[in-house]
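Z., the sequence and structure:
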Amino acid sequence: MASSRKNRALYIDHEAVSALILLKSGMLSPVNALMNAAQSKEVLATGMFQERTFPFPLILSPSGKVNETILTSASKGEMLDLVCDNKIVGELCVDEVFQIDPRERLRQIYGTEDLSHPGVYATHKRLGKYAICGDYSIDLSPVESIQKMIEEAKEQTSAEHITAIFMAANPLHRAHERLIRQSLERTDLIILFLLKPYNSANLSYELRYQTLEFFVENYLPRNRVVIVPLESSYIFAGSNEVILDAIVAKNYGCDRLMIGQNHAGIGMYYDHNSNKSILDRLIGIDIEVGIASEYVYCNQCKTLVSVQTCPHGHHHHISYHSESILELMQQGLLPPAVLVRKEISAMIVASLYPNRFKNLAKLYYDIMPVNGLLEEHTEKDFYVELMRLYQTTSLN
């Protein structure tokens, strides 16, 4: 973006850009602009904005000595360039600059200011002591492209009821598949918001998208599930994640949000002699929130079951812990098919261990059944066929 004149600049990161795009495009409504000092105090005191739930003030407070110098010397009406990775991404007209307490900001978002928490520490590093508000311009095409995808899907399916599911799929496992299938029974269209973080930890977004796309295209009714990216910025962190998910889902046109029973964001708390969850704080956000049962594999039932309906004890249950399943894959092991679909395991392990075998063709033809023809096989093909051998039962 080119500036019409030589402006001073604020230097922001990709997380701030993402939040500013969501805000400007109306996806965080009823909040449609950066909050000023008075609005911030109101939200802090009430947890509400315009009589609707909003968990914390939505402000821009970039860190760094250069930014602090700009903010403390900015005058009302001054135009500032917004710069990310040495590129001008927007322009802001200064309305008000006010001081904030970074540690209080951390408590608002995460419920704690303990810097041993990785998310708290990462956010603390990017928080400054001053916040700025004012009208701004920024490229809204990332949100507009998602809106277009959703509108086209609605038209193709004549959808009246739309359900949102926010998912990391890190990795995609059988319980994720059951949640999606179960949700499809009660809706016309599902929007899968695939979380796109700002670090390279665990599986890449591209690989997670590839596995989710494979499942959707091959094992679900055509055109009834749409996968869209959601940049997982700091505003979605901590105990307020479900509230922000509900707000974003509603503003993208969904009338239902589906979450898992073990979602970290719905933890119980005690208030006025009764047990409540974060969902009890949703006021004025017109969206239904459904909570799916926790699913496990029961070695007595021999299938995927809900813990609420299975009569067998926990010692018969195999849980779907993403971290443990991912650890198997990171060690080069294929998880059992009851945990992860074999084709998906093959895609992930092949990506994590490229060119793993010295002579894949020889290994493939030595231990796999073939039709006698010379064929090209990938490492993914090898893993799929290997899993089929693991599932052979005649010699067990």
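Confidence is low (pLDDT under 50) at residues 267-276. The chain is about 35% helix and 20% strand.

Let me know what you think.
H.
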